[in-house]
Please model this.
Amino acid sequence: MTEPVRLAILGCGAITRSEHIPAVIAHPGVQLVALVDTDPARADALIQNRGLSCKAVADYREVLGQVDAVLNALPNHLHVSSNLDCLGAGKHVLCEKPLAITAAEARSCTEFAAAKKLVLAVGMNRRFAASHCLLKLVISEGLLGSIQDYDFQYGGAFDWRSASGFYFDRAKAGGGALVDFGVHMLDSVIDWFGPVTGFDYQDDDWGSGVEANFFLGVKHTGRFGDTEGQLRISRTFGLKNRILVRGSEASAEISVHDPEVVVIHRRIGGAAVSQTLRLEKIAGGSSYWRQLDNFVQSIQHGTQPEVDGWQAVRVLELIENCYAHKRRIEEPWAEAGSETGPESRLEAGAEGSGGKQAAAHEART
Amino acid sequence: MNWRNQTVFVTGATGFIGGRVCERMMQAGVPRVRALVHGMHRAARIARMPVELCPGDLQERESLRQALGDAKVVIHCGLGPSSTIVRGTENMLAVAQAAGVQRVIHVSTAAVYGITPPPGSESEEAPLRQTGDAYCDNKAAAEKVVLDYGKRGLPVVILRPSIVWGPYSAWSTRLMDDLRAGQVAFIEGGRGACNTTYVDNLIDAMVLGLEDDRALNHAFFITDGERVTWGDFIRAHMALLDPVPDVGEISRAEIAASRGPSSGLFLGSVKAAARVARGKEFRQMLMQIPLTEAAMKKAWSYVSSLPAQKRERLRARFGVRRAAAKPTRARFIPDAVTEATQSATVFFSIEKARKVMGYEPRIQFAGGMKLVEQWLRYAAYL
Model:
């Protein structure tokens, strides 16, 4: 029988508490050795709460000698340095998304892991969601006919209760909605439809802020030929929160609210019908469990993980490309309402040099 | 004063009005905008701009002092729950005075005269009186605090907008949702005074208040200066929907009869709370429609505290329909807060703002509606 993988979890934040710990407890092939957090009280509380027998430490370097692998759930901007440390010590790494803030950093992690012949897996749990796997089957088995296009949108009032404001700091987060949730979307659509060969990106960053909304039109060139898709995310407005893939024979839909099923829409004899597909058998309780299982299998059998570093590099390169070639979403209501908008009467009034200054700013932007 | 080369501090910056103030300050090219942020998770709209997000709370002076920094201009749109309005304003003014702030624009409300302002309150000379509504009375008390600081030398200007509307306003988003749900009626033929204040007109008035010393220590009604009725406002939104929804008429007498003898603002707001709490915009509404905030919170906590059986009886008594079992031909009865709001007869005069500081509404109702329509499409409401 294979020995269990001895694991340390780095970072005891929300995702560790709610998803990774339950997955680790439920997995027979994993032995949890340590929880690491710069605030040891947080790790201790988690150990007490879940009745764990592992130790709590403040610095991951203390436990690297006692583990085979780490699950890295530290904040985004700390991923790279800790990944390189752990890989350097000969440990396999499952790193939460995004693998790094820049593609270059993600590449350095990936190349280092390859040189050391270690597993570097990236936490893209949606790949292991039942609906994701189902949609992949539906598309590749030709149930929809030839693939025409897709529409993927997700939006709602942003509600991440980060006291630090980390998410709104471009230097620490790497960007806004595109980096935060866009990585999941892009990872999924590239997995389904193949590499992105063209794009058109617009967002609502007014300059040195982080975007709350983006529109991204993409073209994939893959095994289904060319597929066009529209992606949209909003942190300010509610959207349809679903992906709809249209084919010549039928459409397939996944709602973000039900990650277990795919709904097929088609016409039979002129009548519109829908059919809900559900996998009858799927291992483990959650997508995080299956992600962990895939990581463990990769370590034990020396195989590639489902989501390796190169895939993360490709997504981050695309995101960097989007930012480099972005256009600003037009907000005509904001322009018309401004002092210098087309309906302005203030311009004609007793404006001093301030008015000219404002006009110059407008011209620049 | 020349505010355009100053650091501007905005309270309520994560809300509808404050969010637009931040955008306008950016568009006007001010060098720095500091935004007081109480709930960081609500800052997505202003985080798009190079606005400095300053964590803080109107109830904690030290946090306010740090957030204010070296700003010399304050635009005070911040609110918080009704019971904290006065203290929050006092804290802001005390910190501003200590820091040598050169101008404070205090965003008050025409609702200092009540949800249904009495005849005679068309001009700012009308005396303030107790209205019995916590929000209205606290906003009136906050004005007194502002004028006191004005007497002590802090340069203050008070603006009293009414129904502030425009892109991002819950007046439009909620109305669209209600129209789709068949939850709108023309009360008394929709003749009630709506007193629209397009958000950019309000901000134009703020700019005048910053620039014109004649505005100091005055309070001004700020509206679009048009006699827009609630019927006009509702119809303009109906026209955006396809098919155009059917909206019936109802008289106040019919509303009263449907409620029975024990109706009143509080009981009516029980119904509003139940309806609103089911709605997807519950939290936004609490934040963005201060007029009804206090009543709804009170009502909702009251309803929630009751045992299920009593709640069910209340629901039956006030005719609040269960979401699951909608009668097909039931007539929609507006809640008491909506009734009170849409029964206003007073159109506020903007003559004082015109005369003293040269205010002229730049965006008219029809033009504003076009911009709102564009925004509603963008925000996936249409």
About this structure: Residues 345-365 of chain A have pLDDT under 50 and may be disordered. Chain A touches chain B through 52 residues (CB under 8 Å). Residues 5-125+287-311 of chain A form a domain with the Rossmann fold fold (CATH 3.40.50.720).
